[in-house]
Amino acid sequence: MADQRVAGKIAVVIGGGSGIGEAAARTLAAHGATVAVADVNREAAESVAREIGGGARAHWVDVTDEASIAALLTGVSDEIGGVDTVVNCAGLNVPGFIVDLDAQQWHTTIELCLTGSFLVTKHAGRTLNDGGSLIGIASLNARQPAAGFAGYCAAKAGMVMLAEVAALELAPRGIRVNSISPGLVDTPLVQTLTSIPVIQDDFTANTPLGRNGRPDEIADAVLYLASDDSRWVTGETININGGAHLRRYPDVMRHLAEISAAQ
């Protein structure tokens, strides 16, 4: 049986229907938390909550819709009796070179990744119990540029700074705000890239530990930040990327162009 280091805590995991969010929800529940699994895909959230059991709940949320975020967090707080941890795993990348990128494509990425993070932070800051923890899933691309990923890189870098500002503002209530920046993690979101051998090989070559990450490895960091083990940690970014920040980001767009030209 897993240790119960978050026993008695109420956790809301946004984007908990798959990938890193799902792993975070399962890990928090396994260590004693009551988990609300929230996702724009209601069926995925319900499936994860059902498999977790133990009082886990499923909720629909769209991080681009402020009313749905407010309703989620106040609803969980009212129903269960407060919220101790909020984990925001929602993310999206619409790639394209800056000179070619349509403004709406830019706005789509920024709205979901950065504005969505602002809205989650806003309402988590209003809802979290004193001494609570707000955790955002950023990215290696918050610090490492990638050609064709302008919107995503800018949004994730913005998320990290947003968390630092929130850490200052919410510290008087003992609320800790931190970010986790994963490298390439095997999730449904990246399967279209990792299924292409030349791209996967480039990622592997530029990761000193020689492999992709696993969702449970990111979830372990979520558990740490949600628990009292991190009671004196705020405004921090935990980089988990197998050392990929020490090398270069693969030229994904060049690989895709070469594959397209060869077809």
Describe the structure.
This protein is α/β, with parallel strands linked by helices and 263 residues long. Helices cover 46% and strands 16% of the residues. It has 9 helices and 7 strands; from the N terminus they run βαβαβαβαβαβαααβα. It has helices at 19-30, 42-52, 66-81, 103-127, 150-170, 191-194, 197-205, 215-226, 252-262; strands at residues 10-14, 34-39, 57-60, 83-88, 128-137, 176-182, 237-240. A 7-stranded parallel sheet has the order 3-2-1-4-5-6-7, sandwiched between helices. Strand 1, helix 1 and strand 2 (34-39) form a beta-alpha-beta unit. Helix 4 packs parallel to helix 5. The N and C termini lie far apart (52 Å). The model has no long low-confidence stretch (mean pLDDT 97).
Summarize the structure.
The chain has 263 residues and is of the alpha/beta class. The chain is 46% helix and 16% strand. The termini are far apart.
C-alpha-based Rg, rounded: 18 Å
The biggest beta sheet reads:
7 strands, parallel
Q: What's the helical proportion of residues?
A: 40-55%
Q: Measure the end-to-end span.
A: 52 Å
Give the DSSP E fraction (strand runs of 2 or more residues).
Answer: 15-25%
Q: Which tags fit this structure?
A:
263 residues, alpha/beta, seven-stranded parallel beta sheet, 7 strands, 9 helices, single chain
